[in-house]
Design goal:
two-stranded antiparallel sheet; 67% helix; mainly alpha; 4 helices; Fumarate Reductase Cytochrome B subunit; elongated; 183 residues; 2 strands
Amino acid sequence: MPRYTNTAIALHWLIAILIIGAFTLGLVMTEIPGLTPTKLKYYSWHKWAGVTVLALAALRLLWRLFKHPPEYADEMPAWQRGAAHGLHWLLYILMFAVPLSGYFYSLAANVPVVYFGMIPLPVLIDPDPALKDLLKGVHYWLNMLLAGLVGVHVAAAFKHLLVDRDGVMARMLPFSSSTQEKR
């Protein structure tokens, strides 16, 4: 079964690791009471991960526009192909919406985002307490939706690996023995 390109595979796993890390940091940092140095450090790391996800998601989307993903096996039912296609596009939308909502939440809270503590990102909106409260909720619920959809994505991948045994998951695994496209 044809595989994704090496570039697509690398971007997939980098983004996955960053999303899991940013999500975990988000859960941990919001549970730390008060304003501590550790909490501030975690907030910075969380923002840096989000900005990196946004940049890599843009690169991945551009890559996908020029390097179409491999086709699914003909044996896969049409409803599964449609569900997989829809889920992938929802994940792409959320890879942009989650970091952007966090970015605008920070700006509305009058907290600039300085990438890796060195590169200040543009301030696109003025501080706004009402917008801050709205964006805090939006950012939280978009994260929960992303976590749920990632769970569905992982469950579907393992279904293909363990139940269907159809090679679908191997298309995105690095170092798989499937036919590999070198790009």
